[in-house]
Protein 1
Amino acid sequence: IGLRVSADDTWGDLFSKILSEKIEPRLGDGRLAVLDEYPASEAALARRNAQRPEVSERFEIYACGVEIANAFGELTDPAEQRARLESEMREMERVYGRRYPIDEDFLAALGQMPQASGVALGADRVVMLATGAGSVERVIWTPLP
């Protein structure tokens, strides 16, 4: 399918490459599209689906091949989040030879957090699509130096 892969690519690397290079550019052509039930391993801060724990409570909305919104149910289980962070740090150490300390304050706060969820809408991406701008950089009103 014409992807560049490396011998040490993980399942997550391959999933991300296929999604970003082959699937996302075609999502939302002619109408909005919703990509739902991400693999739990690809949704670091999202809680698992109670009926199907292999997937997460996460979805994204696409228009014209552009992700315009990202949403998920917040993972509030500190033990599960710790396991995910430790796994990510092992992978970072394997790939980059370094790791960062786990944020203990963040994990402690999770234990106090009520169930929550949210949607992040990319207003800049919506403006880009509405104006026909070729890139999001053309519509950002406060560009980075």
Protein 2
Amino acid sequence: EHSRLQFCGRDGMMVAVFWISFLLLAYIYFGYPVCIRLLASARPLPVNKSGAYQPKVSILIAAYNEAKDIEATLRNKLALDYPREQLEILVVSDESEDGTDEIVQAVAADAPFPVKLFRQVPRQGKTAGLNMLKQHAEGDILAFSDANSEWDQQALKALVSNFNDPAVGYVTGKMVYVNPEGALIGDGCSAYMKYENWLRAQETLVGSVVGVDGGIDAMRKELHSELNADQLPDFVQPLKVVEQGYRVVYEPGALLKEEALSDGGSEFSMRVRVSLRALWALKDMKQLMSPANDPVFAWQLISHKLLRYAAFAPMITLAIAALYLAPVKGLYALAAIGYGLFLYFAWAGYQKESRGQSLSTVYALPYYFVLLNLASFKAFVAFAKGEKKVVWNPRKG
């Protein structure tokens, strides 16, 4: 009798683990988006944009051994539809050794507006480089581009129009994927990016977004905070802007064209690096997760970032509970089978990609979902060990 009661107790505990894990995952990926949508509909805060607002802009680019891409990136910025007298480009070369500096100087020689090169020695990473560039920037607005980012010709105009609203301190654009020839892949967005961009649109209507792209961002220069070399500027800088009482908004008309990463290994490495730096950023800015400051933004930051990065934990506990309970009741057996099929399609997606095959949504969604959560898990392990990423390598992480 005692043994049977003990077994029932274990069953009860695993049932609780199963449903808590399931509900937590459902909230992270579905519940939060529904809540943010309802809030955006109930009390929308539109941005007072104006295309006539065209202040002086400094485009900041950090580069390390980017000889392959830097000329195309600079020519892309030189062709932007924005008043020439209101533009300058500042490039910091983080002790590049591949001819990046010479290429920048050659482009600068015949540029229609100032292109200035600064060299950072010894190598200190992107954040330190951007801190340096800010000291030399003459623009009222700082725009941030990666060394391999191609912007749509109207992108800067679209970004800057948001600063007509005095409540806006930081603006992020929309990334679309292109093939090597520059053509959009499908409608230019992966299913994951469509989901993220939709969330950003809702969060903008609520007040501020909690995640930005990094390759196409802009902010008011007076709000720029000097960051530590190990802090992720794409994550911490917008949070610092919110802390100062300004909005961080999403501008879907500012397009960043990025070549899709061709293999999961590159994507995985990049995601681990970004996730690790984001975890340190959350630790540095943990005061924003306190409801005592801004309860709505605290809820957004916890739901969209902290819980999303930690989603691998309920994924693991859900799998364990489903497998344990599968012999007990048909519902849990179905859950275990469904989970197994999901992982099979993720593995099959990985295999197909390894062979150079394109992935349909049936394979791509599970594959990318598992890849993101494995990257978060690896980042959490590195975070727990105290590891930090300060410097970077071009493109494929």
Protein 3
Amino acid sequence: MTRLLKKILYGVFYLFVLGLIVWGGYEKSFGPTPSCFDNIQNQNESGVDCDGLCISCEIKKLDFPRVVGDAKMLSSSAGTVLLGQIQNPNSNYGVSKINYRFNVYDKSNNLVRSIQAQTVLYPGERKTIVGKIDGVKEIYPKISLELSDPVWVKSSAMIKPDISVGKIKTDIIENKIIVSGILSNKSPFSVPSIEVVVVLFDRLGLDLFSSFTNLTIGGFEDRAFSIPFPTDSNLAKGIDYKATQVYANPQ
């Protein structure tokens, strides 16, 4: 090998090494900052964008809470009630807080309003959630329900209270439909907020009217409740009094 060729090869090698040093310095100084959303396993992560400084890989693999069926919009005594069902498909993790949003659209598919709130989801739980539009009784043609930002908690740290509803009865008293029942807490601890949702159905099995209230109940306590609905003779004739459904959701 000639001396000139050796010089050329050494020169190429040193340029390559220098290029690596310069590139490394550039990446460190000016390259993208490592994050939990860069699809790269870095910053002490044991998986891609999980563990280390990021969310745990166990939580990342969980199934996101889902909306079950279609959201509904029903008349209520004070306006409009929005109903939807959501489910946590995970049995080993609960959700201490999750945001939900009802989106209401007009006939031209324009967003009219959004109703936002928060709730909890126990491990494996399926529940009915509600939204309320005070003073508005117009029924819009389209409604959607979105979930976001769940805060995950291991099932061992999130014990669901044993709440049930019994002796449900629907009557007409003084021109009002009254839905009554007994809320029972078989848990040893009190529950500061239980959302009791009542849905009335017509004789064709279609949900017709809805209302809800919030109650507090102590440990091992039974508590009677009654929820009134303003009515008229036509509404009273159309209701199937045996089809009333009541949901009790610990908050």
Protein 4
Amino acid sequence: MTAPDTLTLLEWSATATMALSVWLAARRHIATWPIGIVGCLLYGALFMATQLYADATLQAFFIVTSAIGWWQWRRDAPAATAATAPPARAPLRWPHWVLLLAGGVIVTLAYGALLLHWTDAFAPFWDSAVLTTSVVAQVLLMQGRRETWLFWIVVNTLSVPLYLSRGLDVTAGLYALFWLNAWHGWWHWGRQAAVAAERPAAQPS
């Protein structure tokens, strides 16, 4: 059992590190990646200590994708800090939605059942839903799709009460801010797409 004071210090450290990483990401600063990796390591330790094993597993996924992002940004170093709009992508078609939602439900139930029967995980299916939705959101984000923000809204909606139920009030507060940021991202990316769509029509033929 981890001492409460140690858990508190670990939670504050993870929260501050991840908040800094997200802020740097918004500014397209390459330091977002190594700092994000540190934040994931801290959150991984915190979630293991509080029996949120799916969330701990999720940090491993984020560490791998952050390492890939760090390498890509270093490869493209001259443009790594340039503020650019996300690439325009066509909205997901209904077959993609069906595939994502059906696959998400299947993975959530399967991984939740695994946690239920083989670990002492707290709220295994709830925790599994956070993991599955986060993976979908991260993949869509890497593709530059606006729908990523809908999935991040779901992730944060599930995460806040889950973390509150484990006494992780600071982490819950951070994810509440992420929830607001996801709504802003959905609006901002939609606005950028609308401006991009109007721009060719404004040019003389």
